[in-house]
Specification:
The complex is a heterotrimer of chains A (223), B (503) and C (538). In chain A, 72% of the residues lie in helices and 0% in strands. Chain A is built from ten helices and no strands. The longest helix of chain A has 52 residues. By secondary structure, chain B is an all-alpha fold. Chain B is 74% helix and 2% strand. The radius of gyration of chain B is 22 Å and the shape is globular. The two termini of chain B are 28 Å apart. The relative contact order of chain B is 0.10. Chain C is mainly alpha-helical. Chain C has a domain of 215 residues. In chain C, helix 1 runs antiparallel to helix 4. The longest helix of chain C is centred in the middle third of the chain and has 32 residues. Chains A and B meet through helix 6, helix 9 and helix 10 of A and helix 6, helix 8, helix 9 and helix 11 of B.
């Protein structure tokens, strides 16, 4: 190892990484041919078809005209990167080595590349923290406070209306006349005591009143 | 006018009533001659007579498939009949009475109450109910009603030294008398229109046309009010919570089940035989009452902290569900479904509610409290009772596969069958109420299963044999009716109601 | 209908109740016998299930097999009718498998406050309800079984659940109760509108088209709410995160694996075939709600700080894919939905198992407190990773076959829907749903990265055995490497024997169905083809 040590100098990987990489690389080389229109292989399509058991939409027709430029481009890129690698990390000393520390512009470009176009930062800082989290927080807030709020409000409302009906309508008639059972206990504890409290008077009035109102309304409706 | 000729009496048809009458006399006599320490005999005897009276009901059901008029003769036939409807209801009253005896024995013995007299009152009240099931005449209905009510007033006040119990009895009595007065006035109007007290005659006369519509309407409404009081329909329910809470718990069970069922029997008979053509009057009246009864009963029950009071309001609301099919009867030819729904509901409700009260009695024997919070942690020291109570509450809430679901199903079906605004309207109200009701039943379940024991006392509860028997009867019935509703679903097709007048 | 071996399904459904009867006579203190009897019952039930699998005629899987019908409630014409076709078979068997595995897991994981007897009885009752729902061919019978599961699940959450269990269980109960009340009214209306003849599902499928279109749309609405609450579909889902989070592990697993499927199954078994015209009207709405559910559930996941609650929210998203598949009304979509139901059952069930075991070891599920699981419990960590990958729909694992074909199907919905001018809508839905899978990858990988990678947090750092047997080799060296393995809490340990027994079948199934999905598609497809023939196939 000669020259200036680089922060990102490649290192030999342990076998745990090398072996899977070899396997994946091999697969990457051949797997494309599983479903390659120019070679008339449709293994993946057929497998998908047989797995689902239902007709899967057909792929568009293949044409060499469209494919050739991209193949050429890929081959060119491959060659350029191979040459660059050889020049930078190779044994022979040349002008390319250390270029990024000498030229500021290239240095910036280098930093940009080392940081993987800042995509991770973009993803982490902008998309995840800037966009996704606020949205998900908002969605969750909606869930807890609005959707669930409605559900809880219905439940609480039911209970509350029970309270109100009981307090003011069902028992309120009683309370209005006299202070509930406290007053009932006052005075001699005779059997007629509750009657004097007025409860029964009111209940009786309600009974007669409802009967009379019911009869009246129905007579009016029916005649 | 006709000359009086003494009626021909069908003793077989009258046998249940006669057995009960004999029972009343026997218990009274035995009570005179047994020493205090052996007064429990009166309870056993009463239970025996309830079951003995069931025997002729069974033989009548097996042998006589026709409608029998218990008393026949010119102008008398058809006023007191034994048909399948009457038999089913009689069996229900007698069995409920028997379960109430089972619930009462320990309570009466240990509470230092007058025992002999209590059972005489209970037998008398049941006799009144049994008579109600056969009555097809305004006079016999009224007699039966008073026969069943007056002993009930006294039983409600049976805890002599307890202020609440006294209040319960007096309140029940006074309001009962008011209601009777209103009803009697209505009956006199009906008699004035029809010139007869026989229901089938009234059914032909009440047609809501002619120049006496007002009188007809008032008569119908007032008679219905009388029974609306009995079934504690809102707004005639005011007595129920106080009375239920104050009365001895077995009496509360009796009032909320048997007495209520008797009120519904009278309503069914009146609507199906006496008012079938007057649906323009009873339908809106009962419809509003049903909607109010379910809703108010439920909503108020949500707030209760006392278990008996909660069951009281729950029973008010259940009454609303039973009123629902009655309110929409004779709409779209659904009277068959309506009658079936009412009968099935009454039977299943009786089994379930009596069971719930049995658990309440068993638990309060230990906790000496009626608060719902006293049920806290019941599962830890009385898992059997907890499971039973869960079954009964779930059945009241209408959760399959427990009996209550089928009762509610029948009521819904009658309403949807009726269709239109009346039918679907009440069905939707009932559906909402079914969910509200679940909330408070589940509060009790939560207390039993999930809360800690309030006083930390986890000694097991000893359930006396009679209560165990009551629990077994109610539990088996609740489960069986839910899993195999076919057992009771056959009862009460329209032809079973003798004298029903089909417009 | 094939009326062969008519007893078979009834035995499969009610056998657990026989076990309950036996258990009632076992004293509460004798927990081992209670557990043993329950597990044996569940195993026997599964044996019946396997026998059913063997006897099933796969060449006629579109027909109801082992069909039997008996009078049940004569006056209302409800019958005891049960039968099994390709649609129900996978779910029926799944319910048996899950119950058995959950019971095995419970052998040494009875949640506080104990009482194994009651806990196992509830699981057996649940099993009867679930299996019964999948074989019932009568609406009333279906309704009864559908409701039978309510109470046991309520108690399971309410008694054995987490801190907020009472609120969660009550909400679960009342919400579902509300749904089923409307569903029951819809069932009765269905019955009356087809001439009050029968509640039997095959009969109603034949005569459902005679219902006037507007009535049908209303009836469908009633059923829709009943089923949608159970699924749960957005916006009826709010009971689910609470119920799942508060339920004990066993409850969460059963809830996720089976109970949620009762709702989607109801759509496929009852709502679509009986009311096809109404289904066409409702399909766009269902599709939209499904996709809203996918995005919304995923966003909800991203906002979670609790691992279990995150998994719970992911159910909302996954069931969204299932409903999207159903809403396309195509064979491909419905096949995908059915597959997705089973796959979600296996995968999310497994995730809840893992969450339960993590909770048991760390006594917390807060994501920020968990870290470095791969160092402390490498096997558990790998299983979590595996399940997360399966859940995000990695090809080759079961989850893929529920999501991918559903998205594919929504691109070209049924010809009826195209004829009604909904093609564009569904294509938009396709795109949004596809974005949803990206979000799914986001929250699952985020969860995995936070909990499994890195170093254990300080509070648990000293807790693991064997901190670096496997992984320290490749990773950069830190000072923490030379912690002794002596000074740890004893409760952070790797996967235990009972966990292995309970989990292996699920893990194997996830791989097998991922690699050979046709195992299931083959069974379901004929029945689905028959079902979708009303919608013009395709």
């Amino acid at each position: 190892m000669r020259g200036k040590p680089l922060g990102f100098a490649p290192d030999d990987s342990p076998w745990q990484i090398t072996v899977p990489l070899i396997i994946l690389g091999t697969l990457a080389l051949v797997s494309g041919y599983l479903n390659a229109a120019p070679f008339h292989t449709e293994y993946f399509h057929e497998w998908l078809h047989s797995s689902i058991g239902v007709e899967v939409p057909e792929a568009p027709v293949f044409e060499w005209i469209n494919a050739v430029p991209s193949i050429v481009l890929v081959a060119l890129g491959f060659a350029v990167s191979l040459l660059l690698c050889k020049a930078v990390f190779g044994e022979k000393k040349n002008a390319l080595q250390g270029l990024t520390t000498r030229n500021q512009l290239l240095g910036a470009g280098h930093k940009f590349l080392v940081n993987k176009y800042y995509l991770d930062a973009l993803y982490e800082k902008v998309i995840v923290h800037g966009i996704a989290h606020p949205i998900s927080k908002a969605a969750y807030w909606t869930n807890q406070h609005i959707l669930d709020g409605i559900v809880n409000a219905v439940g609480k409302g039911g209970r509350r209306s029970g309270e109100l009906v009981y307090k003011y309508i069902d028992q309120g008639l009683v309370d209005g006349a006299v202070n509930g059972s406290g007053a009932t206990a006052r005075g001699a504890g005779g059997a007629l005591q509750p009657v004097q409290s007025g409860k029964v008077n009111l209940y009786g009035a309600l009974l007669f009143g409802a009967a009379a109102v019911g009869a009246l309304v129905l007579v009016l409706v029916n005649s | 006018m006709f000359a009086f000729s003494s009626p021909i009496i069908d003793y077989h048809a009258l046998a249940p009533e006669l057995v009960l009458a004999a029972g009343i006399c026997t218990v009274l006599l035995v009570d005179l001659f047994v020493p205090d320490s052996r007064r429990w005999i009166t309870g056993t005897l009463s239970g025996f007579f309830m079951l003995a009276a069931l025997l002729p009901v069974v033989t009548l059901a097996v042998l006589g498939d026709d409608v029998r008029s218990a008393l026949s003769g010119e102008g008398i036939t058809g006023r007191y009949v034994v048909d399948n409807f009457a038999l089913v209801m009689k069996a229900l009253f007698l069995l409920s009475g028997y379960v109430v005896v089972l619930l009462s024995t320990n309570e009466m013995e240990e509470g230092g109450y007058y025992q002999g007299e209590f059972y005489v009152m209970l037998l008398s009240s049941v006799l009144g109910m049994v008579m109600m099931a056969s009555s097809r005449d305004l006079v016999s209905i009224f007699v039966a009603l008073e026969f069943l009510s007056i002993p009930a007033y006294m039983m409600a006040a049976w805890k002599k030294r307890d202020r609440k119990s006294n209040e319960a009895g007096v309140k029940y009595y006074l309001l009962g008398v008011f209601a009777s007065a209103v009803m009697l006035y209505g009956m006199s109007l009906l008699f004035g229109i029809a010139g007869s007290t026989r229901l089938s005659d009234i059914g032909e006369a009440i047609t809501l046309d002619g120049d006496k519509i007002g009188v007809q309407v008032v008569g119908i409404v007032f008679v219905i009010v009388g029974f609306a009081f009995k079934v504690s329909a809102v707004p005639f329910h005011t007595w129920a919570p106080d009375t239920y809470e104050g009365a001895p718990t077995p009496v509360t069970a009796f009032l909320s089940v048997a007495s209520k069922a008797a009120g519904f029997v009278a309503l069914v008979v009146l609507i199906f035989i006496a008012f079938p053509l007057a649906y323009d009057v009873y339908r809106p009246f009962l419809w509003v009452m049903a909607a109010l009864t379910m809703t108010v009963g439920n909503v108020v029950a949500l707030k209760q902290t006392n278990i008996v009071r909660m069951l009281a309001y729950s029973s008010v609301s259940q009454g609303g569900f039973i009123l629902m099919p009655l309110a929409v009867a004779f709409t779209n030819g659904n009277q068959g479904a309506s009658l079936r729904a009412v009968m099935v509901y009454l039977i299943i409700y009786a089994a379930t509610n009596l069971g719930a009260f049995a658990v309440v009695i068993a638990v309060s024997r230990k906790t000496r409290s009626g608060e719902i919070s006293s049920f806290g942690g019941l599962f830890q020291y009385a898992p059997g009772l907890t499971v039973m109570m869960t079954i009964f509450l779930a059945s009241l809430a209408g959760i399959p596969p427990l009996g209550g679901w089928y009762a509610k199903f029948g009521a819904f079906r009658a309403a949807v069958d009726a269709g239109g605004g009346w039918g679907y309207g009440i069905a939707v109200i009932a559906a909402v109420n079914a969910v509200i009701a679940t909330a408070y039943y589940i509060t009790v379940m939560r207390e039993m299963w999930m809360k800690p024991v309030p006083d930390g006392d986890t000694t097991p509860i000893k359930v006396p044999a009679s209560l165990q028997a009551a629990l077994a009867i109610c539990g088996v019935a609740t489960l069986a009716f839910g899993v195999l509703p076919g057992l009771i679903a056959e009862v009460g097709s329209i032809t079973d109601l003798a004298g029903a007048f089909n417009p | 209908m094939i009326q062969d071996k008519q007893w078979l399904l009834s035995v499969g459904v009610f056998l657990p109740l026989a076990g309950v009867l036996v258990m009632l006579f076992i004293p509460k203190k004798d927990e081992a016998s209670a557990k043993g009897v329950a597990i044996i019952t569940a195993a026997l039930t599964l044996v019946v299930g396997v026998y059913t699998l063997l006897q099933f005629d796969y060449d006629q899987s579109e027909k109801l097999q082992f069909f039997t019908t008996n009078n049940w409630i004569k006056p209302i014409k409800a019958t005891y009718t049960v039968g099994l076709d390709g649609i129900s078979l996978p779910l029926y068997i799944l319910s048996m498998v899950i119950t058995l595995l959950v019971m095995i897991y419970s052998w040494d994981h009875v949640p506080s406050p104990g009482n194994a007897k009651a806990f196992f009885i509830l699981m057996l009752v649940l099993q009867t309800g679930m299996a019964g729902t999948f074989v019932a061919q009568d609406l009333i019978l279906f309704f009864v079984f559908f409701e039978v599961v309510l109470l046991p699940m309520y108690f399971m959450i309410g008694v054995w659940g987490g801190d907020n269990r009472q609120y969660a269980s009550l909400k679960f109960f009342l919400y579902t109760m509300f749904g089923s009340a409307l569903m029951l009214v819809a069932f009765i209306a269905l019955f009356i509108n087809t001439g009050s003849v029968s509640f039997s599902i095959p009969y109603l499928i034949e005569h459902g088209s005679s219902i006037a279109k507007n009535t049908a749309i209303w009836i469908f609405a009633g059923m829709f709410i009943g089923f949608a609450v159970k699924v749960p579909m957005f916006p009826f889902h709010t009971w689910l995160p609470d119920a799942h989070t508060q339920a004990p592990t066993q409850g969460s697993v059963i809830l996720a694996a089976i109970l949620l499927k009762l709702g989607t199954y109801g759509f496929v078994r009852i709502a679509l075939p009986i009311l096809p015209q109404a289904a066409v009207k409702w399909a766009p709405a269902i599709g939209v709600l499904a996709v809203v559910g996918i995005i919304y559930g995923s966003l909800g996941c991203l906002a979670q700080t609790d691992m279990k609650r995150l998994i719970a929210f992911s159910s909302v998203a996954h069931m969204g894919f299932v409903m999207l598949g159903i809403s396309t009304l195509t064979p491909l979509g419905i096949n995908a939905a059915l597959f997705g139901m089973v796959a979600h059952g296996l995968i999310t069930g497994m995730l809840f198992f893992v969450a339960g075991s993590v909770k048991e070891r760390y006594h917390t599920l807060e994501i920020k407190r968990l870290s470095g699981m791969l160092l402390q419990m490498p096997r558990m960590g790998w299983i979590l990773g595996f399940c997360a990958m399966a859940s995000l729909g990695l090809p080759g694992l079961a989850g893929f076959w529920g999501e991918f074909p559903a998205i594919l199907a929504s691109w070209s919905p049924s010809s009826v829907l195209v004829a009604n001018g909904h093609e564009t809508l569904f294509r938009v839905l396709t795109i949004i749903a596809a974005l949803g899978t990206v979000l799914a990858a986001g929250y699952l990988l985020w969860l995995y990265q936070r909990t499994a990678f890195g170093e254990p947090t300080a509070e648990f750092a000293t807790a693991g055995h064997d901190s670096h047997g496997h992984d320290s080799h490749g990773s950069d060296s830190h000072g923490s490497d030379d912690h002794g393995s002596e000074d740890h809490h004893s409760d952070i340990h790797d996967v235990s024997t009972f966990e292995w027994i309970a989990w292996t079948p699920l893990l194997v199934a996830i791989v097998v169905f991922g690699v050979v999905p046709s195992l299931m598609f083959k069974i379901m497809d004929p029945a689905v083809q028959q079902l979708t023939s009303v919608f013009g196939g395709k």
